[in-house]
Design brief:
Blueprint (H helix, E strand, L loop, with lengths): L8 H32 L3 H37 L1
Helix pairs in contact: 1-2
Length: about 80
């Protein structure tokens, strides 16, 4: 039988919080742009750059409208191309 030493509650809390932060950063910065990019056929790098620029220049509103704006620009470009 495997015996696991008991940790102090503070250490358990720190392990849980750091695990959550690492997993959420991986999901938010790597996996989500890749999935969204595949669905709307835009490069994940372009999505991340558009989000960064939207947040930098327009804050929360820029974050909300960054991807739809890129999609509109892409569709317009393809239509007139």
């Amino acid at each position: 039988m495997l015996v696991v030493p008991e940790l102090h509650p503070i250490y358990e809390f720190l392990i849980i919080i750091s695990s959550y932060l690492i997993i959420s950063q991986i999901m938010d910065n790597l996996i989500s742009p890749y999935i969204v990019g595949q669905k709307i056929k835009i490069s994940p790098i372009l999505l991340v750059i558009s989000l960064i620029l939207g947040i930098t220049f327009f804050g929360l509103v820029g974050a909300i409208f960054a991807i739809p704006l890129v999609l509109v620009l892409k569709t317009t470009w393809e239509h007139y191309k």
